[in-house]
User: What shape does this take?
Amino acid sequence: MSRCIDDRPRVRWMQPELLQVKGETFVSLRDPAGIQAEVMLLSPLAYQLTGLMDGLNTRSEILQQARERWGVSLQPDQLDQLLNSLEERYVLDNATSRGYLRDLPSRPAAHAGSAYPADSEELRQFLDQLLEGSPKKQGPASSAYLIPHIDLRRGRDSYAQAYNHAGAGLEEFDLFVILGITHAYSHNPFVLTRKDFETPLGLVETDRETVEKLASGLSFDPFLDEFNHLGEHSIEFQLVFLQHLRSRPLKILPILCGSFQAHLETPSWPEEDGRVAEFLRRLGEIVPRQRTCWIASVDLAHMGQRFGGPPLSVAALKKIEERDRESMRQAASGQARDFLATLQEDKGQRNYCGTSAIYSLLQVLQPGPGTLLNYQQCNEPGLTSTVTVASVSFP
Assistant: This one.
């Protein structure tokens, strides 16, 4: 066994997919953090074994559970062979993968060249084109926004309304708190990073002093799933707009928010989870209100076949819009619990990808009434599915 493999191994979150290769069944593991570019193929049994690698089970307990659950008797060296293979590909959350993360000088621009141009001049032209045709606000920017994180082209209207509303007023702020959404599994409700962020427009500084103040004294480790920041787009997409529209360097407090789905399916307030309550309290205490802009990087409903539901219809889209507009009306009221209640009514069936970030922004800031700048439905051909997005400004 490699000296880097712990006796209680834990795998990082990977995206699995069932594959058939020459008549045989495999499970492919894709690394959403992008540390391992190539997918890893595992047998169904090997994949089942990774499900026991939770950082709690010892190697001997993994072998025992394999016998009890599946009637499979493995030798210790067989398990070690699998563990070594996982470690070589940075799948294990251990000293090897943590060392890789620690040694990164900054968080790379994960989506440059795919979601947007990797060349700085081409990127600026691309962003200018996205922002064209939307009215530009005169005067200071608002202190808080809800802005999408959908593909930049699909969400063009909502991005343009938000960033043209902010415009030159973005120069006024010294710090941007960006509440993104972690699309990968997280053990805790919030995930921090100390890393600066790279984009084709330059390096974005993370306010490490504020990160450390926020993290200190928490009852949970906000860096446990720091890997999630590496491949996540919800913060990165906002950065390129902010850099493009500002003439001076950018400083951010990047926060990934986990899922609040459990609070929708069985209605409860997120603060009933002590980790949420303490994090939001500290966030409100530590971050200065003056010269700080808050952005919740969020999408709304995910409905239709692509998301496990039935195909849509014009009538269904109209109903979704009615419910979305009510949710945004309550969000714009500045009342976090009134917003959440609109999602609890249907037990989260609209599959918002932004509930936790919207709620957190509203609960910390308790802003005055906001303005819905734009609402749109990004429909797929044949109305098979839709993703809805909106942009909202707060004073």
Summary: Residues 109-394 form a domain with the Protocatechuate 4,5-dioxygenase; Chain B fold (CATH 3.40.830.10). The longest strand covers residues 385-394.
